[in-house]
Amino acid sequence: MNVKCDVYRFDPDSDAQGRYETYVLDAEPTETILDILRRIYRDFQPELSFRFACGVVKCGECAVMVNNTPCLACERVIEPELKIDPLPGLPLIKDLVIDRRQAFERILKLLPGVSTMLQIRDRWESVDPDATDRYVQLTRCFECLMCQSACPVFADMPEKFVGPLGILWLAQMSLDPKTDAAVWQYAESALDSCTRCGICAGVCPCSEKILDLALDTLEKG
Fold it and tell me: Model confidence at 132, in pLDDT bands (50, 70, 90)?
């Protein structure tokens, strides 16, 4: 099948604004977006920047927008016409590559003093045995950032709302018996901002429904 692929391009060192470059490829119907991006890089545009690691729906590194829908490039199967963009509302480095570190730091900036508490994920002995199953589910997040990019509240006030991923981190920390009381203050503020629209859960690639579980964990205290 012929595939027409419009790929977003932007180089901060040379471009005043983003643009699209179009590529037409002959592809198999079973190929994925990641397959197409790799072929474009190999055969047409070796300067195209995109990110991937595992290629098997495990790491979340390859998250992009395809035809205005967030997805993992290694999971989404191609269509005859494709428009590929970086995740919106997140800091952009180049082409399809978002600045993941800066995106995480933006969340932690709204949670002052709790960044070291995220080490709970490496302190299994501190988790209440009764909460272990819930904790395991909450830590299966790929941290692909699709939930952040899709959240309408985060889009409206990224400097005030920690977003779905921030809520997930707070839920993880809340299961630690040694959790500081400040976590619950941050959680209360985040829950007040969240509209429970479910968009974040709808785009989450994890089968555990972890974003719903995070909200449930915090709301039940």
Answer: confident
Reading across the β-sheet that carries 2-9, which strands appear in turn? Answer: 19-26, 2-9, 81-85, 63-66, 69-72
2-98, superfamily in CATH? Beta-grasp domain (3.10.20.30)
**Which among 218, 203, 205, 189 is positioned nearest to 88, based on CA atoms?**
203
pLDDT for residue 127 = 63
Q: What are the boundaries of each domain within the chain? A: 2-98, 100-220
Rg (CA), the chain: 19
Q: Is the domain 100-220 a CATH 1.10.1060.10 member?
A: yes
pLDDT in tens, 97-123: 999 999 999 999 998 866 666 654 555
The single residue listed with the structure tokens 């990110």 is 51
